[in-house]
What does this fold into?
Amino acid sequence: MLKMYCKTALRFFRRSKGYTLINSIGLCIGLTCFILILLYVQYEFSYDRQHVRGERIYRVFVDQRTSGRQSATSHSPVPLAPRVLRELPEVENAVRFYTLGSTLIRRGDHAFYEAGIRYVDPSVFEVFSIPLLQGDARSALEGENSIVISAGMADKYFGNDDPIGQELQLEGIGLFRVSAVMQDFPQNTHVSANMFLPFRQIESSEHPAEFAENWNSQLVMSYLLLKEGAAPGIVTEQCNRIFRTQQREDDPRRLGLENLWRLHLYSTISDYSDIRYIRIFLSIGLFILLIACINFTNLSTARAALRAREVGVRKTLGVRRRTLVGQFLFETILLSFLALLLALLLADLFLPIFRQLTGQELAGNQIWSGSLLIRMFPIALMVGLVAGAYPAFYLSSFRPVSVLQGVMLRGKRGRGFRRILVVLQFGISVLLIIATLTIGKQLDFLQNKELGFRKDRMVILPLNSPQMRQTGVEDFRQEIQRDGRIAQATASWTLPSRARAVNRISWEGANDGDDLKIMMNRVDHDFLNTYEIPLLKGRGFSREFPGDRLDYANENAGAVILNEEAVRQIGWSEPLGKQVIQMWGEYRWYFTVVGVMRDFHFSSLKNEIRPMYLMLDHQNLENLSVKLNTLDIAGALAFLENRWREFYPDIPFEYSFLDEQFEHQYRNVQKTRALFQAFTVVAIGIALLGSLGLAAHAVQSRRKEVGIRKVLGASVLSIGSRIGREFVIWIIIANALAWPLAYLAMLNWLQEYAYRIHLGFSIFAMAGLMSLVAALVPLIWQSIAVANTNPVETLWDE
It folds into this structure.
């Protein structure tokens, strides 16, 4: 039986090369896309799975609601984790991470700025699965001046030398001796570092009580390893009970726990990824496969007449219907598995491009791995069954008498079902087109929206040296501003695009219990002018007013400039001269409002503008922003580097551009846009293949009608429009069904952004036009070809 199935299938494939090729290409492209999407999804779900206890590891977060606003942070108080570990039997272990900013590290003549340096508890190797290439995990962080480095850092600083026992100088921190080398962390983890320092080293620094016993500030990331069978909900309640013993009565903060394995896709605190996007891309993969299956079903039923006589003869010879169904299903499944083999080869070929689109570390051997093949085998089988089921039962239902008498009309049976499938196929394509256009338009809006400050041609020089932060860079700033290519320069703690510090304040005239969470930045005198942020009321910081400068040693600690949102939420009609009160535990500092600046966007446009104030400071400023006054960017950078080396010969010169940093906030949207564009093009391409096959069948089945109309004087245009009328109706129905669904889906997606585009008619009209063109181009091409044929040839057998 199987041998007969194979012979019959190969005979049919040879006889219908064109349609077999169209079906094969459609199924192959659909399966290729699904394989790539499956790799993407597998990778997203692989985050932190290398930590074998991940199911029991929970990160502590702090949630609070103030003035009607809810916010949360993944950082928690320093003393929380040790206290919880001591008092809760459900907690097996705990570890804290305290992250340093970019730090200058020296070894001999080698000096580099390094990120990813973290103070950790020694238990880090007991909680997380971090392989050590050299050293002992039990003693690696015992000494206060021990340091554990990654393999990449070992190679960078020591080359072929044995790093164990060697020394590294961390500027402003101390001299450390390498005690262990750990394996480089993979990309798919949130627990990573280039270097580990012992946590006790920072606890025993200048002000241990203010750091180690500080319950008011969230300075560390705390991870708890729960015991087997421990209920996270109960542990959360007990953590809050402990926390409340250290809180003031009016403290709105509450603790929560997030499981390590769920952080990447399900976290509501950190902006890593989103399970919704995974579901969307899986849906796209299934939609593309469905479009390919629809192509196969449509073309098979449209060309049913070509196999009608075969069915009639075989039934007359006594072949049962179930045998015919088996034959037709076998052909489809065989085609599906051949398409799968080609799809695996194509996926391997396009993997480097896909890797660039997603930014994921996807290895080529993953395509040929057993786990992927096991998943794809039943999918290819299902594709074959779905694509071939209707044609198989449809073809096997022909009555031998009708077929052999020629009563059956060519391709008319099943026409209603084909129409439904075509509408579904183009409806899916329209959905994808609208989604792609909307995401692209929103991303363009985010990147081009006026932010309230200047971000183009702004070079950022990090001030990573503790010495530079303490003494300031005023002399260097004055020197570079003498050059005509430099318009202005300013030093600040954080940049306008990434304000990170939050203070709690009250204000003059506030009622008891009134407070406000407010973002804070420390800047020098020229911050507003350099970034071109308008001052609406009052004055900016001035060298003529020494009292403006921040001084926490005094109760009257200096001056502040508020933004409009802060003034609005406080409720002042005239803020100048009034005082805001910064609160930290029992401490209070009073600041005088000297100015009001226009609101500007200091975080992603997903968020509304929040209250903010600026403080004047000359120390502990971490960034120098240089505004260029020239299009010769390379020349200006070379000038800055030369001057830098004159002033700071021992400190490496590094720079970045502000606009690039700001756009980096939208990397997930950019990735989503690129993937949507790619898969939408594929979906349209498969739909176009189906249109080509159906158009060819529609035109060929009406060759004699076309010949008669030409003899009667009909033009090529009128013949084409008559044939294409039905296709246009299908596309209109597909758009009518797809538009409401796309509108609701995109409206829901746009709700993520506080600032977003309007879903106008133009997006839907463009999608409708693109789908119409995709359907009609193959039809017009086929119609013109037949209409230009000599009528004598088409009517020869009449």
About this structure: The first strand starts at residue 57 and ends at 66. Residues 329 and 704 are 33 Å apart (CA to CA).
